């Protein structure tokens, strides 16, 4: 077995990772500090609530600082989101976490701020409104990169699934028969790169014109096939080395195997694995039209469910308030804008498409259906 080569990171990649890691830590800490400062000034008696008794100069100064802090809230959250996307780019779960966090910040924090400080004086209400507006920006700064990372994950699952799940190949002798190297969309075992022309005369799969995984015997799993070819063909050094390499992969002694054992043998074979890769390439392009068709068919029901979920969340947020009477003072959400519903449905469709590919990948490469 050839040694596994570990691809080393370049100096530039290492530098980017170090900078992203530092930026993530600094951005998260500064974001937390600004957030604590804003909520302290929003809730403390000597914060913005006390401006009602202060001269206009002090009011302008403090509200200017609040505006600056809200802008910094967006800057530091953007820095955190960007550095997290760079630092943990390869983590599949990151896109889902960032998009979910973005949704919670975009909708949850404005509701919480509105419900908690609606009965306060004008300066508190103004500060809470400014924070709510900037939290929507913060939510989008997490949501958009999260969706892009999900789309990246979908692209990699479509294009690289076979490579990620491919079993280790063995080095066999070269075949002079170019016909054996044809690549068909859904090839039979003797049409794959692993087949050698000198084995076909003794291969039961080729003789029966049925793929080896159907009859559960082939040139890479039955030592007798290779032994017969060696006895029949004799010959060249390259031929003998190829057959010997093949026979070295068949460690088992000749014995009668049950159908379950033959099935397990197929599951471990690189020929069957190549067949599963072709199956994935055929089926995976169908997943996207299938998900779109489902969303199109159930769009009214999805819109109704999402609207009900948003209204129910609004009820919870109005009751999850620092003020005991905020739920009575705030009017409930009667109608959700269609654009908001459409954004949610698109997000659900993207996440659903990603998980549909995960399910397909599991069925083909793990369960090997």
Description:
- By secondary structure, the chain is mainly α.
- The protein has 2 domains: 11-166 and 280-366, no CATH class; 178-268, no CATH class.
- 70% of the residues lie in helices and 0% in strands.
- The protein contains 13 helices and no strands.
- The chain is elongated, with a radius of gyration of 31 Å.
Low-confidence runs = 1-6, 170-174, 320-331
Q: Termini, distance in Å?
A: 29 Å
Mean pLDDT: 77
Quick one: how many beta strands? 0
The coarse overall form would be elongated
Label the structural class. mainly alpha
Number of domains: 2
- Based on CA atoms alone, the radius of gyration comes out at 31 Å
How many distinct helices?
13
* Largest pleated sheet: none
What's a concise summary of this model?
The chain is mostly helical. The chain has 2 domains: about 10-165 and about 280-365, no CATH class; about 180-270, no CATH class. Helices cover about 70% and strands about 0% of the residues.
Give the topology:
Blueprint: H1 11-43, H2 56-87, H3 93-117, H4 122-165, H5 204-208, H6 212-215, H7 223-233, H8 237-248, H9 259-267, H10 270-297, H11 299-319, H12 326-329, H13 338-366
Helix pairs in contact: 1-2, 2-4, 3-4, 3-11, 4-10, 4-13, 7-8, 10-13, 11-13
């Amino acid at each position: 077995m050839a040694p596994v080569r570990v691809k080393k990171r370049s100096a530039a990649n290492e530098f980017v990772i170090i900078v992203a890691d530092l930026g993530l830590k600094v951005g998260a800490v500064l974001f937390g500090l600004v957030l604590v400062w804003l909520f302290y000034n929003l809730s403390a008696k000597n914060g913005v609530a006390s401006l009602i008794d202060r001269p206009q100069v002090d009011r302008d100064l403090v509200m200017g600082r609040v505006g600056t802090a809200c802008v910094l809230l967006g800057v530091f959250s953007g820095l955190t989101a960007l550095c997290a996307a760079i630092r943990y780019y390869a983590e599949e779960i990151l896109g889902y976490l960032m998009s979910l966090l973005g949704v919670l910040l975009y909708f949850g924090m404005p509701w919480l701020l509105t419900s908690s400080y609606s009965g306060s004086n004008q300066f508190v209400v103004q500060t809470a409104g400014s924070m709510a507006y900037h939290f929507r920006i913060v939510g989008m700064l997490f949501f958009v990169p999260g969706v892009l990372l999900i789309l990246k994950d979908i692209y990699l699952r479509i294009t690289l699934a076979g490579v990620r799940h491919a079993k280790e190949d063995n080095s066999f002798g070269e075949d002079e028969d170019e016909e054996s190297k044809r690549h068909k969309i859904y090839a039979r075992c003797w049409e794959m790169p692993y087949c050698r022309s000198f084995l076909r005369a003794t291969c039961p799969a080729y003789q029966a014109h049925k793929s080896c995984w159907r009859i559960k015997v082939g040139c890479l799993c039955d030592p007798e096939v290779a032994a017969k070819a060696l006895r029949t063909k004799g010959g060249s050094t390259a031929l003998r080395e190829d057959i010997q390499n093949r026979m070295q992969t068949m460690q088992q002694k000749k014995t009668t195997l049950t159908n379950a054992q033959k099935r397990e043998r197929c599951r471990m074979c690189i020929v069957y694995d190549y067949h599963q890769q072709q199956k994935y390439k055929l089926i995976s392009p169908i997943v996207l039209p299938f998900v779109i068709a489902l969303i199109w068919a159930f769009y009214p029901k999805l819109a109704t469910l999402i609207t009900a979920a948003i209204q129910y969340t609004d009820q919870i947020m109005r009751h999850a308030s620092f003020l005991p009477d905020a739920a009575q003072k705030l009017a409930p959400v009667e109608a959700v804008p269609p654009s908001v519903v459409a954004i949610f449905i698109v997000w659900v469709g993207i996440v659903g498409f990603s998980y549909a590919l995960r399910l397909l990948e599991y069925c083909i490469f793990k369960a090997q259906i």
